[in-house]
Amino acid sequence: EKKRKSYQQKIDSNNLHSKAKKLLEVALEKKSNLIASADVLTTKELHDLAEKVGPNIVALKTHIDIITDFDYDKTIIPLIDIAAKHNFLLMEDRKFADIGNTQELQYSYGIYKISNWADLITSQVIGGFQSLDFFHNSGVIAILGMSSAGTLTDKNYRDEATKIAQSHPNVIGGVAQNELPEELLLFTPGINLDTKGDGKGQQYNTPEHVFRNLHTDFIIVGRGIYKAENPEQASLSYKIAGWDAYEASLG
Ligand code: BMP
């Protein structure tokens, strides 16, 4: 079996994007590879969750356009402070999917001003190589394969998308359900310790499965944490499960 690279080996690699370096350093410092997905609907819930899970995560993933009372000063400015306090990165799961010019506008303008605050952003690569050129302030995580049943990201699509991700200097990794070339960090959503699906197409695996079989670098957990009775405790459980699975995958 092929050996995976450790976080330290990845930090030591050449031409590493500054956001990838930061993420890997936080992982080693906190012994965590957990990204919590904060799919909550209000600013208060977002801040409360960030405070509770902050010590256990390397990044907080947002869908900022689902926050019903979004206000840049009230939602984002305190969130940046919480992220600094607990030493985690902010990842906006925007899944850009347009031509470069439109993505450039969506990234920096409108009410969300994503380029001001997102250390990491997700983007489709459906618009081609140049569509990613304007994401200057964030590390780009390319959507290469999806976790949902019936996704159109078949092998041919994934292979072509992965070539774009590998060759673009703004891209630090990919969201996928398969192993990636080792210079791309692998982010895997669809992680849950208690259930196999959500009845809406989502398909879940365990941390153990994805670290062993896919050589995942970071797990993304939404409802397993924010819907738990005790999100703080749940984030600790996923952090430990993720770290143990990472260490086991080093062999
Ligand atoms: P949950 O753990 O509650 O199923 O949430 C998963 C999160 O990861 C959601 O925010 C979803 O948008 C995201 N996600 C996913 O589930 N599968 C993918 O292929 C890509 C994603 O970004």
UniProtKB/TrEMBL annotation:
Q: Which UniProt keywords apply?
A: Decarboxylase, Glycosyltransferase, Lyase, Magnesium, Multifunctional enzyme, Pyrimidine biosynthesis, Transferase
- Orotidine 5'-phosphate decarboxylase domain location is 33-238
Q: Does the keyword Transferase apply?
A: yes
Task: Show the active-site residues.
Answer: D93 (for ompdecase activity), K95 (for ompdecase activity), D98 (for ompdecase activity)
Look up keyword Transmembrane helix and say if it applies: no
Query: In which domain of life is the source organism classified?
Result: Bacteria
- Associated pathway: Pyrimidine metabolism; UMP biosynthesis via de novo pathway; UMP from orotate: step 1/2; Pyrimidine metabolism; UMP biosynthesis via de novo pathway; UMP from orotate: step 2/2
Enzyme class, top EC level, equals transferase
What does this chain do? Catalyzes the decarboxylation of orotidine 5'-monophosphate (OMP) to uridine 5'-monophosphate (UMP).
Quaternary structure and partners: Homodimer.
Family to which this protein belongs = In the N-terminal section; belongs to the purine/pyrimidine phosphoribosyltransferase family. In the C-terminal section; belongs to the OMP decarboxylase family.
Q: What is this protein called?
A: Orotate phosphoribosyltransferase
What is the protein's species of origin? Chryseobacterium taklimakanense
Q: Quick one: which gene encodes this?
A: pyrE
Question: From the entire protein, which fragment is shown?
Answer: 204 to 454 of 454
